[in-house]
Amino acid sequence: MFDVGDKVVYPMHGAGIIEAIEEKEILGDRKKYYVMRLPMGEMKVMIPMDNVCQVGLREVIGRDAVEKVFQILQEPAGETPSNWNRRYRKHLEKIKSGNIFKVAEVVRNLVLRDQEKGLSTGERKMLGSAKQILISELELVPGMDREIINQKLEEIFREPQEEDGSPQK
Predict the structure, then answer these.
(1) So where are the chain's domains?
(2) Domain 63-157, what architecture?
(3) Could you give the count of Cα atoms lying within 13 Å of 145 in the half-sphere of its Cβ?
(4) Does 55 have pLDDT greater than 80?
(5) Whose CA is closest to 98, among 17, 165, 8, 164?
(6) CA nearest neighbour of 91 among 74, 115, 108
(7) Residue 82 confidence (pLDDT) above 90
(8) Quick check: helix, strand or coil at residue 10?
């Protein structure tokens, strides 16, 4: 399904590159694994090849989809439950999907909520994880690099300023 050198996304962990395909025996069971390096945190993950569909491993988006991600980030916040627990679960479900467009919605909704009302500790942590997942994939798109991505995100999420230079609330 995938080859060494392929850029892939592992939902809830982010994007990385398949460095090797290895056969390992674990608890008497011999299986083939993708060995994936995640640039964020320089972590290596082994994914059983027969589990790829269940975990949602997929290819990194193409350059054409990057603009759609940035477009989603610029849209007004979507409908979210007012109850923080329901809102948290709804956002977590979107992140777990592995769909970059849904992850972009979570980032947008949480950034806008933070600017309006602030975030709970759990939501702040979720925002950090969602941003990391988003950036890790965008970085692996040909022609993109961390500096360009961070610059674009800063531009999108810059808080509106009052005439005196203070943030609008």
Answers:
(1) 7-59, 63-157
(2) Up-down Bundle (1.20)
(3) 1
(4) yes
(5) 8
(6) 108
(7) no
(8) strand
